[in-house]
Amino acid sequence: MASSKLVECVPNFSEGRDKSVIDSIAREISSVAGVTLLDVDPGADTNRTVFTFVGGPEAAVEAAVKSAVAASRLIDMARHSGAHPRMGAMDVCPFVPVAGMTMDECVELANEAGKRIAEALKVPVYLYEYAATRPERRSLADIRSGEYEALADKLAKPEWKPDYGPATFVPAWGATVVGAREFLVAYNVNLNTRDKKLANEVALSVREGGRAARDAAGNLVKGPDGKNVMVPGRLKNVRAIGWYIDSYRCAQVSINLTNFRETPLHVVYETVKEEAEKIGLRVTGSEVVGLLPLEPIALAGRHYLVRMGKGEGAPERELVETAIRSMGLDSVAAFEPGKKIIEYTAKAPAPLMAMTVTDFVDEVSSESPAPGGGSVAALAGSLAAALAAMVGNLTVGKKGYESSWKSMSDMALRAQAVKDRLARAVDEDTEAFNAVMEAGKLPKNTEAEKAAREKAMQDGYKAAANVPMETALACVEALRLAREAVAGNRNSASDAGVAALMARAGAHGAALNVLINLGSIADAAYVADMKKKAAALRAEADAICAETVAAVEAIFS
Question: Between residues 422 and 216, which one has the greater pLDDT?
Answer without folding.
Answer: 422
